[in-house]
Amino acid sequence: MICSVTALIFTEPGIILTEMTNASMDVLRLCAELLAIYTIWMGLLEIVDQTGLGNKLANLLKPLIRWLFKIDDPQTSKYIALNISSNMLGLGNASTPMGIKAMQRLDDGSGVITPAMIMLLIVNATSIQLLPTTVVGLRATAGSTSPSDIIFPTLIATIITCITGVFLTKLCQKIFNKKGAEK
Amino acid sequence: MISAYIIPVLIIAILIYARVKKIETYNVFVKGAKGAFDLVLSIFPFIVTIMIMVALMRASGLMDIIISVLAPAFGVLGIPIEVSELVLLRPFTGSGSYAILNDIYETYGVDTYISRCASVIMGTSETIFYVAAVYFSQTSVKKLSYAIPLALVLSLFGTIVACLICKIL
Q1: Given CB atoms, is A33 within the 8 Å cutoff of chain B?
Q2: Among partner residues A51, A143, A157, which is closest to B18 by beta-carbon distance?
Q3: Strand partners, A112
Q4: Assuming Cys at both sites, which of A147, A180, B5, B54 could form a disulfide with A139, CB separation 3.0 to 4.6 Å?
């Protein structure tokens, strides 16, 4: 940020504040959109929660979640399960509230990041995409002859990336654990 | 288009299932929806900060310099130079990278290798800085340790895989 501002002072000092205000205004618009979207999904997710569907999903993914995050808390597992599954369906905006809640529950209050939190971030960053809805929509709008052509390549690419991500994270955790033990 | 039906079907399925389970859908929906306002309010300052940073980087030309330095390196990794701007901006901004994706479609044609490549890259990558800022905003964590570098490396790996797969298929 400092670099950018310094560079701008030499080129166009007048636009610094304008740019910052514009960005801020954009975020305000974005947040209004997010508020609308989160309201819908958090309402629906509350229903999912009350019906017990959330718990069922968490139970289904339990072995995977236990292996990835080393946790047993049913509430946290439920949030993670909902986060991962909505991400896979390309519903990034539905998964964010769940991700935040899961992060809060994984937080031990010490101010230090835990391995489970890193894993959750990586799983989100490399998420497997069953249906890249937005991209398919964009391709259709741009006049593609077969917009859904990219679903299969995306699926394969994300599966490879996700698996690599999980193993690399596990590896990093081992390396950093050793370092911690030596200290 | 099947994908257009996924979300409506999902919503109807949830509502019907709730009916079967005899849940007061209206009250429960309102209860959950209430939380959205607080959530957006509490993540707002974090998103603003990240977005101001991105806006300044683009306005100052710093972003262009970084792109021009890194583009040749991407060529070596098998990533077409045409998509390098997309790859570099993707970790910062979701809406911005969709705009670039659209540019690529218009410039090179939707069904070309470049465009297919760019489409798959969108799937394998994520707006890492944004997600990290939002996800960790409500926790006590101050330092993210190796989380961000690791996520970026994986994102690059995903991009390389995406380009390879598009070449084969």
Answers
A1: no
A2: A51
A3: B143
A4: A147
